[in-house]
Design a protein that fits this description.
- With about 200 residues, the protein is α+β, with helices and mostly antiparallel strands.
- The longest helix is centred in the middle third of the chain and has 27 residues.
- The chain folds into two domains: about 55 residues, no CATH class; about 140 residues, no CATH class.
- It is found in: Cell membrane.
Length: about 200
């Protein structure tokens, strides 16, 4: 085996998609999009993917750039709006009225379930307290039902988050299996024969 082959084996191959994803998460967690945070996030992503690379796993989805942009922009907007609403609520000393809702996701992939749960928990005012892998169900605590727009809206918000994730990364077959017309935009709509699940509060 040649020396270049040895070097390639010694240093794991880094996925550009993983670098971009980790960098974006770093910037969003800091809450300030600037050059310094972006460079720092990229550095951390390089270290993480080099020192502790994830095991190789097959990706049977499809990367849609516009879907990813839409997902990132809407996620950043949701974080900003939720943070502002909760800050105003705290300043007004209004007592929150929380609830736990059950949301049956439409996708059938552990990866998308995990991503939906993670991004939902990163938005202030909502946190996933339990996830059932086999049924694709999330139990989510809502900090204040009124701020969330009511139980029905809170339920729709989670499903819309999942849809944006699927339209950014899922394959055509995965979208159809989840009941969505393939495409990167939610305007593509849903398959007519699929019915939406209902939420429950407890």
């Amino acid at each position: 085996m040649s020396a270049p082959d040895n070097r390639r084996r010694r240093w794991p191959r880094t996925s550009w998609g993983m670098l971009v994803w980790l960098t974006a998460i770093w910037v969003l967690l800091w809450g300030d999009i600037n050059l310094a945070n972006t460079i720092a996030g990229l550095g951390v992503a390089l270290v993480v993917t080099t020192v502790a690379p994830l095991p190789a796993a097959p990706f049977d989805g499809r990367f849609r750039p516009w879907g990813v942009v839409r997902l990132a922009v809407r996620f950043a907007w949701d974080v900003l709006v939720a943070s502002t609403q909760i800050s105003v609520m705290v300043l007004r000393r209004r007592e929150p009225h929380g609830a736990v809702i059950r949301v049956r996701l439409r996708g059938h992939s552990d990866s998308y379930l995990t991503t939906t749960a993670g991004m939902t928990s990163l938005v202030p005012g909502s946190i996933v307290v339990e996830a059932h892998r086999l049924t694709g169900t999330l139990y989510i605590h809502i900090f204040d039902v009124e701020l969330a727009g009511g139980l029905d809206q809170a339920h729709r918000t989670v499903l819309e988050q999942e849809e944006r994730i699927l339209r950014a990364f899922a394959s055509r077959d995965q979208l159809i299996d989840a009941g969505y017309v393939p495409g990167s935009s939610p305007r593509a709509g849903r398959v007519a024969s699929t019915t939406a699940p209902r939420e429950e509060a407890r």
